[in-house]
Amino acid sequence: MSKGATPTGFVASTGSWAIEILDDLGRFAMLVVHTYRVMGRRHFPVRETLRQFEAITVRSSTIVFITALFTGMVLALQTATSLARFGAKPYTGSFVGLAFVLELGPVLTALVVAGRVGAGITAEIGSMTVSDQVDAIRALGADPVQKLVLPRMLAATMGLPMLTMFANVLGIGGGLLIATQLGIGANFYYQSVVGVVQLGDLLSGLIKTIVFGWTIAMVACYQALKTTGGTVGVGRSTTRTVVVSSIAVLVSDFFLTKVILLF
Fold this sequence. Notes:
By secondary structure, the chain is mainly α. It contains 9 helices and no strands. The chain has one domain. It has helices spanning about 5-40, 45-60, 60-85, 90-130, 135-140, 145-180, 185-195, 200-225, 230-260. Helix 3 packs antiparallel against helix 4 (about 90-130), helix 4 (about 90-130) runs antiparallel to helix 9 (about 230-260) and helix 6 (about 145-180) packs across helix 8 (about 200-225). The longest helix is centred in the middle third of the chain and has 39 residues, at about 90-130. The termini are far apart.
């Protein structure tokens, strides 16, 4: 508590902050419910969903793949150096494979997409909100949630698992490049990965990315639709989207891991 703050002022500010958080959660829940309601309506936005899938998945592939490749190379280098102290350097592939499939692949992909796609969605829809284009959609008798939110939510939910699968392959492949330079045979590296990584490990990581993709898209759309204050407000909403979605990915990763380990 600061010097000039009083207990009453502290309680009032804390209460105001809590009410604002609860209000945001309530409005977010209403948007989620509305999104699933419009899913069954006529005039499903197939073309827009495919366009968003291309924008989210294909256009994000380069940065995701570069991130995965060099992360796998660095991880293999650090792991091999550390395991060499115990005479276990040949088993670098087992560590890299498990680390990527279970955590690094899903989480790194989600964080990259949150930064690129989440910010892009918020900037695009936020600009439409402050320029009254969203209100114009309503005035024309259409539902902005069906036209704007639903396609992006479906595209992100479907696209993130695909990006993660390729990221896993490139990350493990990057580890192979370093492993061969350090004297580990490519065949032994491959066998150590295949022998340790099971189908359940791969599926658990992909299940997480479905939740991550949904979270990123819904947070971005919610922040965009509540944008006010012109271009300055769009910038604030974009920053808030990246921060909130990144934190949500990390927090949900922990709880999803706890749940998956129960089965």
